[in-house]
Structure to design on (462 residues):
């Protein structure tokens, strides 16, 4: 990579055009775009799968969630890369997709509301309001970033990953008719993990980037002779179709759910801000407060529109930043084409249904990698914090200790009112609120040494 913008433009062969704004030849652009889609596809469908499986949705409803998520990931990516006027879109090579940050909150809302029929409208109503909140505060959020230093963001990201890991193990149990994990289910999950490890170790380039998808295909094929594959879910799936708007009903607005989702939105804005700053350095383009604000508005607008097509919060996919580094292709138009491809895939119910036939042990194995990667991202962020300071270490301890309670002790808040369970039951909302509050107490209020933990540089989360 060039170390100077001028040399970068010269290397790109387009004098006066920054590599971010370069339009590549059609063939090279298509291949680079497909790499981005392959790199984020599994992550993009994982969130709707986690929600659908945990909520015991039908295959049809699951396909609706996945199709909507892919469609809105494409639209949000187009908003981010191409932008609207000088108000929306960072115009950086950002791929957007469904954020994991809201999974715990969404599952808690569905549970406290009594199931899918009553819970999904409340989930979507909370997403709409929290996204509008994110849109309104985007211009001011860059000034609030100092209240989300690595000790806060690292704790919350680690909490998100660790609290989701038990979900993957539950999938293996749910696949068994006996209610306990069977050896064949554990064996299938183990074989899928082994396939991913071998692919990561012995492949390079494009094959390594799509190792997760290859492992999913391998695990599904292996499940056929084991009697763990069910292809009946493909019956009746149309090759082309527009996702039905508001498939689960009109959004409903519940105050506790909205409060929890606003906390999730703050986490998403924090992650996106860190990713934009990191990507700006990678592509050698200045990322100022105005650029960050435009990018956050794109995230928030995409998130606000998502519930209309049965999708969740949209945010930047950090793994695609790694692909920009590896491929050295910095054109935002490459990523825009990726967005267009995601829109086309989202308009194919058959494509969404195809993912739903993947056996639960295979999904569990792949998800362990995804959830574990989120936790590692949080740990990497915590390495940027000064944990030798007892106060910062205490923030991490309390955040993880309180935030993991619902994940490790089923029904921990079961005796609380429903409104309290929505706020406390996900753990992520509780952990984020505690982390921010404790950081204010120890690093800001009544101390002149707040700079030790208040304004370190954000880091990219992979």
């Amino acid at each position: 990579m060039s170390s100077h913008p001028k040399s970068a433009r010269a290397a790109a062969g387009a004098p006066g055009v920054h590599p971010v704004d370069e339009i590549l030849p059609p063939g090279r652009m298509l291949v680079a775009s497909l790499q981005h889609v392959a790199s984020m596809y599994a992550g993009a469908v994982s969130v709707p799968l986690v929600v659908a499986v945990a909520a015991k949705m039908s295959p049809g409803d699951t396909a609706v969630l996945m199709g909507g998520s892919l469609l809105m990931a494409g639209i949000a990516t187009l908003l981010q890369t191409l932008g609207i006027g000088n108000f929306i879109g960072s115009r950086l090579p950002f791929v957007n997709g469904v954020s994991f940050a809201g999974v715990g909150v969404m599952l808690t809302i569905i549970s406290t509301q009594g199931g899918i029929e009553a819970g999904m409208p409340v989930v979507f109503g909370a997403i709409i309001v929290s996204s509008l909140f994110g849109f309104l505060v985007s211009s001011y959020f860059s000034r609030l970033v100092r209240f989300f230093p690595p000790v806060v963001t690292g704790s919350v990201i680690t909490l998100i990953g660790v609290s989701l890991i038990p979900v993957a193990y539950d999938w293996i149990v749910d696949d068994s008719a006996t209610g306990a994990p069977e050896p064949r289910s554990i064996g299938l999950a183990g074989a899928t993990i082994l396939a991913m490890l071998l692919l990561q170790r012995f492949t390079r380039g494009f094959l390594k980037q799509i190792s997760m998808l290859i492992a999913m295909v391998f695990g599904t094929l292996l499940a056929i002779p084991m009697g763990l594959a069910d292809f009946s879910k493909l019956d009746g799936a149309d090759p082309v179709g527009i996702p039905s708007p508001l498939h689960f009903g009109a959004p409903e607005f519940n105050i506790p759910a909205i409060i929890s989702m606003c906390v999730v939105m703050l986490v998403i804005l924090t992650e996106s801000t860190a990713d934009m700053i990191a990507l700006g350095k990678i592509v050698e383009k200045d990322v100022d407060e105005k650029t960050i604000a435009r990018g956050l508005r794109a995230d928030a607008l995409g998130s606000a529109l998502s519930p209309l097509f049965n999708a969740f919060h949209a945010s930047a996919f950090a793994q695609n930043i790694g692909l920009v580094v590896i491929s050295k292709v910095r054109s935002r138009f490459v990523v825009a084409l990726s967005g267009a491809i995601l829109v086309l895939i989202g308009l194919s119910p058959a494509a969404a249904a195809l993912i739903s036939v993947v056996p639960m042990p295979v999904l569990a194995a792949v998800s362990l990698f995804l959830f574990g990667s989120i936790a590692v991202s949080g740990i990497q962020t915590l390495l940027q914090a000064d944990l030798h300071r007892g106060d910062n270490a205490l923030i991490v301890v309390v955040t993880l200790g309180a935030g993991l309670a619902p994940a490790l002790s089923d029904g921990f808040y079961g005796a609380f009112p429903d409104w309290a369970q929505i706020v406390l039951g996900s753990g992520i909302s509780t952990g984020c609120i505690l982390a921010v509050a404790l950081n204010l107490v120890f690093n800001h209020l009544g101390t002149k040494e707040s700079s030790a933990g208040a304004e370190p540089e954000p880091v990219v989360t992979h």
